[in-house]
Amino acid sequence: MLEAQLEELRRTTLARFASAFSQENLEEARVEALGRKGTLAQISKEFGKLPPEQRASLGKLLNSVKQDLESEYEAKKHKFEQEQLAARLEREWLDVTLPAPGVRPGSLHPITQIQAEIEDLFTSLGFAVLDGPEVETEEHNFDALNIPPTHPARDMQDTFWLTNGHLLRTHTSPVQVRGMRALGPPLRMIAPGRVFRNEEVDASHEHTFYQLEGMMVDRNVSVANLIYFMKTLLSGIFHRDVVVRLRPGYFPFVEPGFELDIQCLICGGSGCAVCKQSGWVELMPCGLVHPNVLRSGGIDPDEWSGFAFGLGLTRMAMMRYGIDDIRQMQGGDLRFLTQF
Ligand code: DAH
Questions:
Q1: Among residues 31, 57, 91, which one ends one of the domains?
Q2: pLDDT digits (tens, 9 = 90+) for 273-314
Q3: Residue 123 C-alpha to ligand 1 middle, in angstroms?
């Protein structure tokens, strides 16, 4: 009787294990057959009531059924675990060679790029790259540059005055003064940097923009030297032919002074917002350093002469990349900036 029950249990349970479709399903079958209140436990109870002589042979059967079921259960369980692991590995693999998500490589601002190129160019010609403070004294920004307090040229540069009498530099020219005083003649220097004007902002005016000052002081520096360096500079920057013109220009710190214009690269000379419909863009005022400026830099104008120029870095970048609104340059819009 119990024998038949054991054989039946073995047969049905092995079949249930074999057809188990999930781990839970397998577990249910195990509990029913092998659990504390399962079929095998009930049979064991009956087995305990048997007379000893019957127990020996039946006991063997009982153990073998138990072992069969347990090992089959373990095998099946192992199989489920392997399948689950395989599915998980399939689902959760990582390509560790992929770039991290959400991180984009940065890019240099167009002004920074042009500045770096011009610095390379001039350092290769023996020029030092100098830095000056953005908060300047009136003396460096005006007086030492031959612009005395009553001079009308002060009105040309709408100045942000600070309450302590200092100012935000309106140009990079005060670094000329600092350079002359610090280095003495002969001297070759450039000074890139940020300058400030109290201006109404529109497509071609900003209150904050970038200039690059240049100065060379030596014996017998002439307009010919100036023109040579300016030409070298422009061909280096634009990597192409640009149409230029020289006009006389007035700046208190140079004599003679010039205005170097280039034909507008946005419209090709036909007229647009950047060139104010004129077809020309003032790119580079320059000239021979005024004797008074050399003097205030501690340099004897009878012995030394020099040229100087003030390049509009911001304007230069706009020309080069065809940017027609200066407000883009400091707008911080990544859609704009990542194009360069
Ligand atoms: N500092 C002048 C400005 O910002 C530009 C300038 C003109 C600089 C002539 C120079 C120069 O060095 O020679 O308006």
A1: 91
A2: 878 899 998 879 999 999 999 999 999 999 999 999 999 999
A3: 21
